[in-house]
Structure formats: C-alpha cells, structure tokens
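so im writing up the methods section and need the Bacterial transcriptional activator domain-containing protein record in one place, dumping it here so i stop losing it
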Amino acid sequence: MRWPRHLLSLLFVSMLLAGPPMVLLSLVGPPIAGWPTAQQAREWVQQPLTAQTLTVALTIAAWLVWLVLAYTVTIRVLTRLRATVSWLRHLPLPTPLQATASGMAGAAVFGVSANAVTTAPPQPPHPLTAGTFDDPGDTTTGDRGVVSDAGIAVSGGWLPREVAEQVAAAGALVWLRRRRTYRPRPPAPLARDDQDLAPLPPTAVAVQAALADHPARPADAASTQTASAGAGGLPAFLAVLPHAGVGLDGPGALAAGRGLLVSGLLAGQRHPTEPLVITRTVLTNLLGSAETLGQNLPWMSVVDSIDEAVHSLQPRPDAHPDASPDKPRRHTDETAGAAHLAPVLIVEAPAPGGTELELLAGATAARAATVVVLGEWPAGATWHVDPAGHTHDPRRPGWAGPRLCVLDATAATDLLTVIAYTNPPPSTPTTDSSPHPVATGRPVPRQPTRQSPPAAQGPPRRLTLRVLGEPALLVDGEPMAIRRTAAVQVLVYLAAHPDGAAAGQLTAAIWPGLPRHSLTGRLYTTLSELRRHVHTACGLNLIEHTDDRYRLNPAHADVDLWRLHTAIEHAATAVTDTTAAWQAVIDAYPDTLAAGRTWPWLQPVRETLRRGVIDAHFAAAAAEPDPRRALNLLQGGIRVDPYNADLHTRAVRALITLGDHDAADHLREDYTRRLAAAGILPTDRADTTATLTGQPAIRTR
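--- predicted struct ---
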C-alpha cells in the first residue's frame, strides 16, 4: 500500500515548510525590522563584524534557504496539478446513453426503501497477463486503440471481438499444421533455415497480442459466443446483413468490403459448405494485385463478371416475399444448419436498369445468395460506412446500423495470408541465409559453476532463471516475486536470445502493433525496476547494457534454456558417443518454453526448440536396436509434440512390428480425435490417415 508512504512524505514536507519560519520568527523575529538609518549604516561601515550584524546575516541566509525550498515544492506541486488537469481533459466522458442509464440506476437506488437496500459484491479485478500495460487501472492499449468487449483496434482497422478471436484461432491453427507436417531429421544446430518457422504477419500478431492484453471475462465470453453465432446460428457477419442485399458506400466502404471478405472466409472454416463469390474487379479494388493470393484462399470463388457470379448459383425455393428488405436475416428452419447457408456475393454496383441488377435481385429474392454491393444498391438498402466501420441508412435518419469490420489493404492481406495457409509443405532447408531470431552468432555463454569466484565480497549468491516450463527467477533456490508482467516477458526474451536485443527489438516483441516512440519510456521503466529489484535482493547485476543491447549477464545468471542450447549444439556436431549427446538434449527439455504464456513472439522460438528435441528422439530411436526402447523414445517424442504426424506414423509401425495391433489402432484413433478437437479440417485428417496407414490421401475439396 502506498498511501502511508505518501502521507509520511506529505507530513515531512509540511514540517520543512512550516517549521523553519516558526522557529525563526519565535527566536529571532523578522529578518529585517526596517530599513537601516544613515547612522546605522555609518556604524556598520566602521565596524561590520558585530554580534548583531552576524545574527542578521545568518537570519537572512536561513530565510533564503527556506525560500529556495518553498520555491522547489511550489514548482513540483504546479507540475503535478498541470499533469492532473491534462489527464482530466482526456478523461472520456459518458455517452448520452450511459448518462441516461446512470440516472435511471441512481433513481432506482434512491427510490427504494432503506430496509430493502442491498449491496452487490465487488467485481473481481481483471487479470493481468503478460504484455499488458502493468497499471491495473489502464484498460486501453495506447495508440493501438481501446480494446473492449465489442472489438479490437489494430494498425489498419477494427475487428469485432468474434472476428478477432477467429483470427487468433486461425493463427494458432497455422502453427499446429506446421507442427503436424514437420518431418524429423538428424540433429541440426539452432540456426535452422526452415521456411515454415517464419512468424505470422504483423496484423495477426497484433490481434493475438491484443486478445492476450484484454482477455474476455466469463460473462463476456458467453455473450461473445452468442454474438458470434449470429441470429439463428448464422455467422455473425451474415446475421447483421439484410437478406435482400445491401450496398456499401461512403469513405469506409472499401475497408468494410475487405472486412466482410476476411470475416466470410474465417466463417467458412466453421461452415465450409457454401463459397464466397467475388468478382475480379472488386478483388482488385480491395487488395490490388491479389491473383496469387486469391487462388490459394479456400471457400472463395473469383469470377469475371456479375453474370457469371449469379449463374454459378443454384436457385433456392425458400423465398419469403413478405420479409422486409431492410431487416437483417432471421433464423428459419431452412437456415438452421450449416448446409443451408447461402453463399455471399461481393460485387461492384450493377448498371441501373440492366440485366445484372435483375439477376442480383432475383438471387436475393430466391434466397440463393447474400449480395453485398460496393456502391449504390437500388434493389435494397444502402448503408453509409464511415472509416471506423459505423453504418447508417441515409433514408432513415436516426437509425444506427451495426459496426462492420474494417481493414486497410495491408491488414487484410496479412489476415488473408493466415487463412490461405491450409496445407503447408514439409519443412525443408531453404537457401535463405537469414538466421532465426533464436539463433546466436557466437557460442552460448558458459554457465557459472559452484567453483566460480563470487562477483562481490561476502557469501556467494546463486541466481537461477528458469524459463522451460513456468518462468521463475530464483535467488539461492528461493523464487523472487516480479511485480511487472512485462518484466517476466523481458527475462524470457533475453534468455531466448543470449546475444541480447536492442530496445526496438524488445518493444516490438512485447508490445507488437504499437508505435515504438510511445513505449521507450515504459521499457526503460520496466528494465530499471527489474535490475534494481534483483540487485537489492542479491547484489548481482542480472541485465547488462553494452553496445546498445540488453543481455543477461552470463557470469551471474544460470539459465536452463542455455543448457538446452548447449546440448542441441553439441548433439548437432558430435561424432562420438552420439547416443549420450541425444539423451542430453532429451533430459534438458522438461517442458515447453514459458508454458502457459500466449506471447505471439514465442511461437517461432518454441517450435525451433521443439524440433531440436524431436530430432534427438528421432535419432535416438533410429539408432536403438531394441524395438521396445525405440518405441519408448518415439512415444517420448509424441509427448513433446502430440500433433506431429511423422512420429505417430513411426510409433504405429513400431507397434505393428511388435504385434500390438490394438495399441496401434488406439494410437491412430487418439491422434485423429486430437486433430479434430484442434480444428484440423477433414482434408487434413485424410492426409493424416493416409500417413498413418500408408494409403494415398483422398482430397475432399
């Protein structure tokens, strides 16, 4: 608690300001009783050093010291007041709706009888996760925009909460597919050149970081799931659109079109039955040259004209002519299941009075498609979209429509790249010579031993950083509490990069998507407090700053990850006693890096380490003459990565060789269920089944 310390400081400053004047006035009196006369001046010139003149000089000096102190305190108080006034000016005021709700709530409270008044229990505080702004009262993410339960703002647009969660899920699925398709190889150094170890695009990383910064509360999560289902189980982006089609115009029309494109393709992963149809003209207007990207996107069909788009549809006989064209889609028996979802058409504005307009109007009337026109839509409603995604209908003043997902071309391309990643090729070395961030340009720092001389006089202290598993910093075996969550992330990042990192690299990793100039002070505060806290606890300097790079001090820190680095590098270069080298890698990996953390920068580093450990299991199993021990090593690799298909294939073959066909069948079934629970698509499961059985894969789309 800080208030006792603040109170003591206030009392001390008050005593300094009030005490000296009271003492001087009571003992000496005013410094000058009046202006000296001519006689007194002549006497002072003839004899300047008298007891009276010395007393007056000392009194004046004391008053001057007090005036300097009072001036300093006044300036500090004015500075604090100015900062407070500036903060109050930027304090968001309640909207009219919130003010009305507050007034109604106050009236309800004061209107009930005193005996009926009850108080609700206080709401628990929001949990702080790694990468937050560390201030419990800070509910925003700075220049990235306000992160609320309704949506998340990133550089380049705004996404509804459910769309952002689908983006994060798609990003996680990318890494699961990469893990599934990796083929173990002989142990290699940490500086891997695997093409599929590249991080996700920046917009996807920013969305993941924003969700980690502001996790949904249980009640909000339930409402988000309901909203994501839309009306009657429809995807949310479909539920807000009128069934008779809608036109989008205004400064945010193109951004909203990109948002609908991304939202529709994300929804296609959950309802992969009907395609999203878009004309080539609209796709070019939205994304520029996106021909290659459009060919790799699932559930999207690119056509050359509106006629071709409409003729590719099958007419639907479930039209309801009494439905209002301006109302959103409602749940019916025909639209209850995913198999009855109509495709979405995103087209340019048709020519007035032409056949294209009649075709589109007929498709919407027959419920054969949901039409979105980028421009004026004569057959239905036209929504005006502002750059933030807010919609309104000019024909209905005062009507506020739903807020749509809006994205610029860069953000949309980033997210479409994640969606397009369906079946990545097996990991193979490439000619790209740029090292992965986890790779080091020099040998891993030597770890201190018990025989190492102490850094300072007195009993030696031992500082241990554990990042494999739950991160922890220990002094002489006792865990040290770290107040700032960003400080934990800094420690793990520096442990994963023994060569250190510049301030820009740290801010880009810990706070992705935010301007670096707004984070420099926050980073310096985090590092300064961490270094001071550690030095106070054990007298050791954990983090050193040389050559504009921050790094962990290898002379003072014993890092478990560095021991794993050393073991992997040794296993990659060992020519004798290779079995012991492989086993050392296996023994040095107790758990995944920073287990339980969802920092986006972790995924490439985690996968690099995981592959090094899998390679050790694979090499040890391949060299093991005993089938049972080889099977145990393969099963150990499966525990390291339960999604890897190659390890499961080898384990199934080993079980069949040993005659345990039931265990082989159980392993196949468990693996298939695990992939299905993770969201791997049927085509992926077909590939996996073919891998486990040795049969060719059958494509379902």
